[in-house]
Amino acid sequence: MQQSVYTSPVGPLFLWFEGEKLVYVAFREEDGKDWLAKRCPDANFEQEPLPRAYQDDLDTYFKGRRIDFSWPLHLMGTDFQKRVWAEIAKVPHGQVTTYKKIGQALGTKAYRAVGQAVGANPVSIIIPCHRVLGTHSFGGYGGGLTIKRLLLELENVTLRPNFLA
Q1: Whole-structure pTM value
Q2: Is residue 146 part of a domain?
């Protein structure tokens, strides 16, 4: 398993790849290592430079430009989680959705389960879980609410005033 680091305007992003496929993205290296240790206990981590194409995509994104990440992924999760992540991936740059709308699209009213699946997204930014809000709240974010707010601002998302507090 290879680890790469990308220096972003919101802090370092730690990315883990299995071969050419992205497995995990974390804002804190220890979070990624903990997550991977539970799922790949025998994995050895080799530090590698981030492939140029991925570097370019992230540079484009962090300049505020629309990009549809088409990276090969190796998603580790339940079938339900993967369905939620596929729904999140449909949310366009600069737009947001809610946990409830994702649940409705999947034909379920288990909105808390949807929220848990959103929170378990292993490839933040690439599958843009920061674009998912609560119906009446800002919701959570694994990278922290400050980073969620910065990512949405980068995409020129206008939030309702009650979400800004």
Answers
A1: 0.90
A2: yes
User: Range of 137's domain?
Assistant: 79-163
Q: Quick check: 120 pLDDT over 90?
A: yes
Say which residues have a Cβ less than 8 Å from residue 18's Cβ, sequence separation at least 6. 1, 2, 74
Residue after which a domain boundary falls, among 62, 92, 108: 62
Q: Which of the residues 129, 133, 147, 151 is marked catalytic?
A: 129
Q: What gap in Å lies between CA 13 and CA 6, rounded to an integer?
A: 5
129 is annotated as an active-site residue: yes
- Give the whole-angstrom CA distance, residue 2 versus residue 74: 13
Contact 99, 115 (CB under 8 A): yes
Residues 51, 12 share a domain:
yes
Q: Which helix (H) or strand (E) holds 16?
A: strand 11-18
The per-residue pLDDT for 165 is 43
